[in-house]
Sequence to fold (194 residues):
Amino acid sequence: MAKTLTAIFVVALIIITGFFFFNNYIYEEKQADAAENYRDVEFVISGERVKLVNGVAQTETAFGQASKTTVRYFGNEAKGDLSGDLVPDIAFLITQETGGSGTFFYLVGAIQNAHGTYTGTEAVLIGDRIAPQTTEYRSFSGIPGGYLIVNYAERAPGEPMTARPSVGKSIWLKLDPKAMQFGELVQNFEGEAR
Fold:
């Protein structure tokens, strides 16, 4: 009888231990999936909601037309606390092609909550047929939240759109977490003129 109780106890212990290890494995897998799903976030571009699936979204440009609008994950990621909640967020560039000759570059943010899921921001237009360089996250000293610097090359004033982008430019952007929109920060502001 004692051997039977011991055997039952050992089997129960193995089952319970196995359950906890399996449960932990599933939890870790879900956390890993949530950490990677920022590329499939839904965001707003030009007033329309767009949901990326495997980094791509396609919609018809106009009813009954053969041309499609394609939005793609481009990259140039920057990671940091954009919303000021001390949880790291991710910003990246996407491209939009509407069937014409243009390729429009936008910056979007994937704002992470404490559960590891993401909410997309409104996309902000960076430019048409630009040459993206880097996207950097910078924080304010002692203040939660930060801002982004998007560096890229564009054409010189007066050059045709077919010219190769050759003029360096930077845009500084800060997220308004309530509106989920980026606003441009003024660079090197020295105050009012005297």
